């Protein structure tokens, strides 16, 4: 099965075509976003692996906001890789964290257990978790990945050595900025990290966070090219906007009762949100019925998308890893039950005004 992000990279995908036809009026939203974002407050002092760094700060924010983040994605990634050395090393780390036991039963990660750990340790842990998930999303990354350095013979600490000192310092700086700018805005609200949706069965999708009815995507990009004064600004790309819309529309039966959607810009310290119905109406150029729009999106995924895959020949049903011979053919462990479910929500006012921060 394909993913929402993969489909949005394809301008001919029925997903992309439908979203842009249904919601064509994006320019005013993009202009307001750029103005609200301001300039970057944090830029890395050295070389960092951008996409992995973004996933790593996402993990750290999950640990800050969700008392029971799920280890499902890194565990599945390791199991699907079979006997690969990096997968053995990853499983050793996940077992040591209490995220999975010898019966392959998953348990929520307990961030409170690490409060005595220093910041560099947590940064390295988050970087390791981010790396472990990458082969699940794109198996082709493994040969060039730092994961290939792992032997699986040095114990659970081995993956913690993969982040560079520059990356560790950069993650700590982004965490500090989030504690200053993001955490106070959502503190005390029920949070769920890595949520999947009813529509994820039709098109793979897991978001970053849902906090009190706010669907939140974490963006850690530096922004555009440096200006003459060296500063950078952030733009809202159409694929990033479509990703937010896609997540909200994949909640077919309104299970999460989403009221607002938004981005937290980790290098800018900006929380930018929209009330969901208002955003859809602005983009569509008219009021919309969210339930009807979700039903229409569902029909696109179930009727138009499979036909597109069949005609393009680009989508085949095969194991998503680089060597099918190493696949463990088993029923993968299920999402761990939460000790304290975050629902039902008591909706707050995160999206009371468009572009709030």
Shape: globular
Query: What's the N-to-C terminus distance?
Result: 36 Å
Strand content of the residues, in percent? 5-15%
- Low-pLDDT residue spans: 316-330, 345-357
Number of helices: 12
Structural class: alpha+beta
Computed over alpha carbons, the radius of gyration is 20 Å
Percent range for helical residues?
40-55%
Secondary-structure element order, as H and E? HHHHHHHHHEEEHEEHH
Largest sheet: 5 strands, mixed
Q: Which strands sit side by side, in order, in the main sheet? A: 1-2-3-4-5
Mean pLDDT: 90
Explain what this protein looks like in three dimensions:
By secondary structure, this protein is α+β, with helices and mostly antiparallel strands. It has helices at residues 4-8, 14-22, 27-37, 50-65, 72-80, 85-96, 119-137, 165-181, 183-186, 238-250, 276-284, 290-312; strands spanning 191-193, 209-211, 214-219, 260-265, 270-275. The model is unreliable at 316-330 and 345-357 (pLDDT under 50).
SSE topology sketch:
Elements: H1 4-8, H2 14-22, H3 27-37, H4 50-65, H5 72-80, H6 85-96, H7 119-137, H8 165-181, H9 183-186, E1 191-193, E2 209-211, E3 214-219, H10 238-250, E4 260-265, E5 270-275, H11 276-284, H12 290-312
Parallel strand pairs: 3-4
Antiparallel strand pairs: 1-2, 2-3, 4-5
Helix pairs in contact: 2-12, 4-7, 4-8, 5-6, 5-7, 7-8
In short:
The protein is an alpha+beta fold and 357 residues long. It is 41% helix and 7% strand. The protein has a 5-stranded mixed sheet with strand order 1-2-3-4-5.
């Amino acid at each position: 099965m394909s993913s929402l992000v993969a489909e949005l990279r394809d301008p001919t995908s029925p997903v992309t075509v439908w979203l842009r036809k249904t919601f064509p009026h994006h320019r005013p939203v993009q202009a307001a976003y750029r103005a609200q974002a301001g300039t970057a407050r944090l830029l890395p002092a050295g070389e960092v692996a951008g996409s992995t760094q973004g996933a790593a700060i996402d993990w750290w924010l999950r640990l800050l906001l969700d008392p029971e983040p799920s280890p499902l994605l890194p565990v599945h990634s390791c199991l699907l890789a079979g006997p690969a050395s990096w997968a053995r090393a990853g499983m050793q780390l996940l077992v040591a964290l209490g995220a999975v036991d010898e019966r392959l039963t998953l348990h929520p990660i307990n961030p409170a257990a690490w409060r005595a750990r220093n910041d560099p340790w947590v940064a390295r842990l988050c970087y390791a978790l981010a790396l472990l998930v990458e082969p699940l999303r794109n198996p082709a990354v493994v040969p060039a990945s730092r994961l290939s350095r792992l032997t699986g013979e040095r114990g659970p600490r081995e993956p913690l050595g993969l982040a560079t000192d520059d990356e560790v310092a950069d993650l700590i700086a982004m965490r500090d900025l989030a504690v200053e700018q993001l955490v106070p805005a959502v503190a005390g609200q029920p949070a769920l990290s890595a949520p999947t949706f009813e529509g994820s069965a039709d098109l793979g999708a897991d978001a970053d966070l849902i906090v009190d009815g706010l669907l939140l995507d974490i963006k850690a990009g530096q922004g555009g090219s440096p200006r003459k004064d060296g500063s950078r600004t952030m733009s809202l790309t159409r694929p990033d906007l479509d990703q937010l819309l896609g997540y909200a529309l994949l909640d077919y039966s309104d299970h999460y009762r989403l009221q607002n959607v938004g981005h937290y810009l980790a290098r800018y310290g900006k929380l930018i949100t929209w009330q969901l119905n208002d955003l859809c109406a602005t983009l569509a150029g008219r009021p919309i019925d969210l339930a009807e729009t979700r039903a229409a999106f569902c029909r696109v995924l179930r009727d138009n998308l499979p036909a597109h895959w069949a005609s393009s020949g680009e989508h085949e049903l095969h194991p998503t890893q680089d060597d099918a011979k190493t696949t463990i053919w088993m029923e993968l462990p299920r999402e761990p039950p939460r000790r304290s479910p975050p629902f039902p929500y008591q909706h707050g006012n995160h999206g009371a005004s468009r572009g709030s921060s």
